[in-house]
Every structure is written in C-alpha cells, then in structure tokens.
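Incident log, structure service

09:12 report received: a user says their structure output differs between two submissions of the same chain.
09:20 pulled the input from the user's history:
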Amino acid sequence: MEIFILNKTSYYNNNQISELVSKIQNSFALKQFCIDWSLEIPNLKYLRIGWPLPSGKYYMNIFDNHIHKKSYHTLENNIPFANVFCNPKLNNLSFLFTHELFELLINPFMNQKFKFQNEIYLKEVCDPVYENYFIENDLIISDWILPSWFQEGFIGKTNHLNTLKGSFELSSNGYMEKPQY
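09:34 re-ran on a clean worker, output below:
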C-alpha cells in the first residue's frame, strides 16, 4: 500500500517533511504497529509542494493549525485520507501524524465498528490511548491499542506501551468515537 504525504503547511519546508516521512517510514514503531496488526508496512511517499497527487491513492495532508483544529481521517470520493493540523509551538507534528497514520491503516474506509455496552463505536486504534506517546529517533510517536483490546473480558497487554490493564479500558485522556451518520 502507498500513502502519499502532502505538505500544505507554512511551518515546515519540503526538506523537513521529507525527513519526517523518512524517519517514520524506517521507524521501529511503524514496523511494530504493522506486526501487532498483521499488516504489510505501507510505503510512505512524500510529494513536494506543487507535485500532483496520483488519482485513487490514499493520502495525508499536513496543514498549519492556527485555531486548534482536530486532526482526522475520512473519505473523499471513496478515497481514504487524513488531515493533520500541526503547530510547531506544541511540537506535535510527529505525534498527530502517527496517530492518524495508524488509524488510517486500520480503518481506512471508516466502516469498521465495534459494540461495547450496547453502543456502536468506530474502530480507532489511537483514540483509546490518546495523548500516550513514546520517543523514537527524536519523534513523538502515538501509542496504539492492540487487537486484544477488543476481546471482551481480556486481561493483559492491550496497548503498545502496556499502560492499560484489559479490554475496553481507556487512558486518562482516551476516548471512543461514535460513527457520524
């Protein structure tokens, strides 16, 4: 799978975004995430400012965030994409990027859901451990839940950083999102 990265921010230049994409592409975190979820490692491709996006491909936009917009992933013309809104004062680009990348990989079409306590939620793998992170190669990497998190009654490791005790548990800032109909 290829995911194209587009720089639409004035905060970071082509070289900075290209370096970020390369570091994430070669990170232990991306490899471990793909192992945990039985995925092939995606090929992240940075498109320099002004280069056209190939049609029909997954993509991620990186935008300036002046008004505290929340990053998200969704569909446009049935093509999965993510919008990452960054602010260098918060040093949050790599955290938000990995958060949206991991969720895009697991639920690209926003159609995977799960049931908990008679409620339906979107299958999002970073939201339950939101704001949990670790540092790798000067990158702030988002934590993620493991497939065991969805196994009702499971007690044991349910997230990468092993801070949760069992299934459906949330970190202090974690949450579950209901689908928008």
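09:41 both user submissions now match this output. Likely a transient worker issue. Closing.
09:42 reviewer note: Helices lie at 14-25, 28-36, 93-106. DSSP finds three helices and nine strands in the chain.
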